[in-house]
Amino acid sequence: MLRTTMYCFSLLIFLLSWACVPIYARNRVHQLAPDVYYWAGDLSKHEQTNVGFVVFRDYVLVIDANFPWAAEHIIEDIKTITPKPIRFVFNTHYHADHIMGNSVFAARGAAIVSTDDLALELGNKGMADVLEQTKIKLHHLELPSVRFSDRLVFDDGQHRVELVKYGRAHTKGDGVAYLPAEGVVFVGDLAVNWTHGNNLSDQDVSYIGWIRALDNIANLHLKTVIPAHGDLGDVDLLRRQREFISDMWKQVKQGLKAGKSPAELKKTLQFTQHGIFARDPRETEDMVESMCERARTQPDWNSGPGESE
Predict the structure, then answer these.
(1) In this structure, CATH architecture of domain 21-246
(2) How far is it, in rounded angstroms, from Cα 203 to Cα 25?
(3) CA of 148: how far to CAs of 35, 113, 171, 189, 262, in Å?
(4) Could you say which of 20, 166, 181, 217 has the lowest number of CB atoms within 10 Å?
């Protein structure tokens, strides 16, 4: 009887504590491992970027900043998990839906972290991308104050997060956040898991670099892959994203070198075998068009027709 009473009391305490957590947080914050979480993006709210956070002994590290209106919610939701301060926010790349919330976090004392190349891109191209995505003309963007060339490690003896640059890929300054003990990686836009396509049009994109980056990340010890957009995956998500980009680049390069026009390639190339990555025909056509526009700037354009690794 005592054991039953204690169990019921414990259950009541749990339910009451859970009820005190805002529904907004309950629906969007998901635990991946002890002290490791992600906040699920929602395109319908124009808050489409998945955001990670790791609770260290004395502080919180956030991975990507989303938009400012989302950042406000994210901060409040983190407070339902831990009272520890948010000290660092890592940007995986410079596009607006990943960095525009920087100013909200910085106003509360967080330092923005990125690769050196991302910081340069944000200064040179960030305003234009914000205007394109949001139609908002800003006069200031919060630039990273903590920068690294290839690797930066956060390790307090309890948790280790490795911020790693794998080279020019989706953008020039892409970085990922890897938690080796947990087998978790936040890859930004190097991989997505939704039907709305991916942005293949950045002026510094490298398709062969993107393919190689995904290969290198897939070789890590991984249990969970958090894409920038859409549902969680595992290493298979990285391999399928890699095959989609590789196949599209091979077909686009082969078609252009055979004298076909971008308009013709948009209507004739087929990628339905790649499932979710090509489920929306209009998005797929946009990606083909972007590849055609960037094709001759690619480092492997002069390799054999249609060659891809």
Answers:
(1) 4-Layer Sandwich (3.60)
(2) 36
(3) 25, 8, 16, 19, 38
(4) 20
